[in-house]
Specification:
The complex is a heterodimer of chains A (about 325) and B (about 230). Helix content of chain A is about 70%, strand content about 5%. Chain A is α+β, with helices and mostly antiparallel strands. In chain A, strands 2-3-1-4 form a 4-stranded antiparallel sheet. By secondary structure, chain B is α/β, with parallel strands linked by helices. The longest helix of chain B is centred in the C-terminal third of the chain and has 16 residues. Classes of the chains: A alpha+beta (about 325), B alpha/beta (about 230). Chains A and B meet through α1 and α7 of A and α2 and α3 of B.
């Protein structure tokens, strides 16, 4: 290529650039894609991500604790202790009959001796002759709903069956409830703290980004712009910026919920994931988590916009 | 050139016994009494630090006097609400010593800014802005951003921005301070032309040679006091 051709190409490129510049839409009064603006977007995205994760964790614990409590309410155990001179099998049959007559009971299962051995094996070892030991026998009673007449059942068992007691897992349920509630309360405290941290860092990052725009406020002011006009320009800019950052963080969090819920847990625990779900619930974040993440993104965007508005008015007041 | 007036009720700006101090410091400006008539032309001069820029800021309502009365377009400054300022400011064009152009906007957008903040559509003023840019010699630099303009071109852009709304009064702080003598003369001719078209002009400068070329009213600030040579 000759020198003249190169020069010609350069000139054509320059003209094209110039033409693009001419056709471009007018520049925003508040500059876009500045360093401080991008830094603010990143801060907002991170804080929104953390807030969404915390919200997801809190909803997870809350769902799991509700599941535990429901499971515990669906089952009670009747214990029949062997007594001298009493045929335990007769008492077992009688207890089972009493349980079957009680309202709200779906099924009654008398655990056989083999199953009893199976339950004790982890503690006492194998090869045990259970018939020599005075070991209580168990009846598993499954309930339809909470309206089951457990008090009546306990009363009748005491009166009609020798050596029978009803264990409604109340102590366990109470302890679990306390623990789960404590976890949820702790989770909410963490959520509040993360929100407060997000609010403070978003406010300061916004003020920082605004500081680099002080001269724009001054210039707009002396060319005769109304305060409301300046505030609107900044508010719109920072609302969009906050929305972009907030949605980025929320989307990242939602993606993580989905990956953990549908891929990581089944992959890690395989068929055990059923057992795991008994303990921890389904380990997926429900709709509250996903909608909450969206709400967090919008709240953070609003916070950014309002902060910029207040900063603009503060700046204008300082100039007077 | 209109000068040598005696003052009157129709003044654009009137100062009566105006004093100004920053915080608890000494008075920077003392006992200022003057007025600026419509279609008048005057220089504001005095040594560096005499308070020229402070006086410009007072004229432009970005400072309030600590005592005395300042009236702008017949309205007393102390009686104005903050919401009255924008409409009054639009009647005064200001050229700052440091230009105060917005670097992320093109020359065109900088000059059009006073119209844009009024909410006007670009189509309605495009022609006016381009014409004004040609008039101040920036016809070839319409879509250039300020950082690549020379000092004189920035100065011209700042002047064009001050003039685009056809203000009744133009305040220029050292408009020829950053430019070579030929351009300074060109800019001065621009101001004279503007004055002939009906705008009051006040130019702050300490360039004696420049002032000697024009037979105009001089307001001389010295140690915070003003002497007027009609």
């Amino acid at each position: 290529m000759s020198e003249a051709e190169v020069a010609h190409k350069v000139q054509v490129a320059a003209h094209r650039r110039q033409a693009r510049v001419v056709q471009r839409r007018p520049n925003q009064l508040v500059p876009e894609n500045t360093i401080s603006g991008n830094a603010l977007t990143i801060v907002i995205a991170i804080m929104s991500f953390l807030a969404c994760l915390t919200l997801g964790a809190v909803t997870l614990v809350r769902d799991a604790s509700r599941d535990w409590q429901l499971d515990l309410r669906r089952e009670v155990t009747v214990q029949v202790r062997p007594r001298a001179g009493v045929d335990i099998n007769v008492e077992l049959a009688r207890a089972a009959a009493v349980a079957r007559q009680t309202t709200g009971v779906t099924s009654v299962e008398v655990l056989g001796e083999d199953e009893n051995i199976g339950l004790l094996e982890p503690w006492l070892g194998s090869g045990l002759s259970i018939s020599d030991l005075p070991i209580p026998r168990l009846i598993v009673v499954r309930l339809t709903n909470r309206s089951a007449d457990l008090a009546g059942l306990a009363q009748r068992l005491r009166n009609e069956v020798r050596g029978a007691t009803l264990d409604d897992h109340g102590a366990w349920a109470a302890r679990l409830r306390t623990m789960a509630n404590a976890t949820v309360v702790a989770g909410f405290i963490v959520l509040v703290l993360v929100f407060a941290a997000a609010a403070v860092s978003v406010i300061f990052a916004t003020r920082g980004a605004m500081a680099s725009n002080d001269h724009i406020v001054s210039v707009l002011h002396f060319v005769g712009a109304e305060d409301g006009f300046i505030a609107r320009e900044f508010q719109r800019h920072f609302l969009l910026l906050g929305l972009r950052g907030g949605l980025m963080g929320a989307a990242a969090a939602a993606f993580m919920f989905a990956v953990v819920g549908f891929l990581v847990i089944p992959a890690l625990f395989g068929s055990d994931s059923e057992n795991l779900s008994v303990l921890f619930g389904r380990f997926t974040v429900g709709p509250i988590g996903y909608f909450g993440a969206l709400a967090i993104a919008f709240v953070i965007a609003m916070m950014t916009a309002i902060t910029s508005r207040l900063t603009v008015y503060g700046h204008i007041a300082d100039e007077r | 050139m209109n000068d040598g007036h005696q003052g009157g009720a129709g003044d654009l700006i009137r100062f009566e016994n105006v004093g100004l101090r920053y915080g608890m410091g000494p008075e920077v400006l003392r006992d200022l009494n003057f007025d600026i008539a419509p279609k008048s032309f005057q220089f504001l001069t005095g040594p560096s630090g005499a308070g020229k820029t402070t006086l410009i800021r007072l004229l432009f309502m970005s400072l309030k006097p600590t005592r005395g009365i300042v009236s702008v377009f017949g309205r007393e400054l102390s009686a104005l609400a903050p919401s009255d300022y924008p409409s009054l400011r639009r009647r005064i064009g200001v050229v700052f010593q440091d230009f105060r152009l917005l670097d992320h906007l093109t020359t065109f957008e900088n000059v059009a800014l006073p119209l844009r903040v009024l909410g006007r559509e670009e189509a309605s003023y495009r022609g006016d802005v381009v014409e004004l840019l040609r008039w101040v010699g920036l016809g070839d630099h319409i879509h250039i951003h300020p950082p690549v303009l020379s000092g004189g071109e920035k100065q011209s852009t700042a002047i064009a921005r001050a003039l685009i709304t056809q203000p009744e009064m133009l305040l220029a702080d050292e408009p020829t301070g950053n430019v070579d003598p030929p351009l300074a003369r060109r800019l001065m001719r621009l101001f004279v032309e503007l004055n002939r078209l009906g705008t009051s002009v006040m130019i702050a400068t300490h360039d004696i040679n420049l002032m000697n070329q024009f037979n105009a009213r001089r307001l001389v600030l010295e140690e915070g006091r003003l002497t007027i040579y009609e």
